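Handout, tutorial session.
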Amino acid sequence: MVDPLQLQIRLELPLEVVRGEFVIGSLRVENHSSSSCRVSSRLNLLEGDVRLLLTGPGGVTRLVYGAYQPDTGLRQAELAPTEALESGLNLFYTSIGPTFSELGLYQVQVEYDASVTARGLTGPPVSLHVGEPAAPEAPLMELALNRDVTESITRMEIINPGVRKLLERLANEFPSRKEGVIAGWVLAASATGDPAALDSDLEGSFRGAGPLTLARWLSAIAPPVSTHGSRLRKRFLSFLEQADFPRTESERARQLIMGEPFRLSDGD
């Protein structure tokens, strides 16, 4: 049984984004008690254990779920005292479509069902300001706001033939941007070409950011419920083993991708 007082839920978001930017948060469940507890490890919006209370610039609050709801089995993890679970969280496309489509200030709270006996635990509100993209970013944001693009990324599959070219434009024209990297991952997850060439492309995309940042992006768009994302997760784990990252960073990234608890440190 989970005592809600044992748990803290932490959502981290960027303070400011531009309209159309892929918003990826970090969701963490922490055990600050003196005893262990078993909690749901389904830390995404797709499987029903996590929801958002979203208050938009106009002051209206809505309950937001994942863009689609697959039927999946329960997944749990045992959290020892001072341990936590973490996952990236895809917030840019949800049950209401593009989540942050209006300009202005948003307040976001997470509701989390830790277990059957600890449902609807609510984290503190987090602010996010959405601004207008600058002129150089406008073509990127126009592509990123395309509904077929955002749906393909959320489903981790090519939903129609036309969207492939849009994803290729994102990946090829903006390779150093989060949006371009993620578009490339979706193309790789659905590709049927030479495996060695595809793996080489993936490895190149993994070198554009730190391991924890990459792990948050990847866990957000390819959670365990995503069968098409399994290749990406496996390739990223292999990359972590070979890359010259500090061991502590690589291990935290691995735990995040695997949905394993980690020990909280003083910095947490």
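The second record follows below. Compare its token runs with those of the first.
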Amino acid sequence: MPLTTLLVASLAALQPALTTCQNAATVNTQSVTGPNATAVLRVSAEDDHAKDTHLCLADYQLLITRSDGSRSAPVAVLSSDNDWGRNISVQLSGFSHDGKRILGIVREGGNIPVQQVFDYNTDDGTVRLFDLIKLVARRAPTKCLASAEILGTTESGTIVSRLSTGKHCTKSNRWLLNSVYGPLRLASKHTSILALYKPTNDRR
């Protein structure tokens, strides 16, 4: 079976977790497994308690459990303060092929939509964010909102994502995030993709 087909099949079960931003709203993604740990992406929401506003604060954290059962400190991925009741979607795509990075997607509705791909490096603890709305706006009309699916990485570590910017907008294609040639670049049909890590006992 072709590598790309295997990738899509393995990711199909990783559905996003959904909630709305309001007090005491908390939701976790499905857990994903790496070579030496498992991870969950959690979003917690509450009133931002700002004077004369009624906005909602959402905090996104990675919760990582090592193979020995110990847990690392929660990793702060992103915080946003925006419309009360806005829709929130969180998706944990998985560990990179070498198990050193954790990749996922955060989406929000509201007056200021959010669509961020995050890349957490387990070696140095850094989090990189890619604002897909801004990146795609340079290549498609602003009304076109990107949806993304992370397919894996190249051998050099660049994230490979399938982006679709909606009807009458840019076609769905594979894109490279943060390549040496720019923050968003169309991948060639010859681009080799390293699959996200998949445990040997995972038979999905």
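Points raised in discussion: The longest helix spans residues 3-11.
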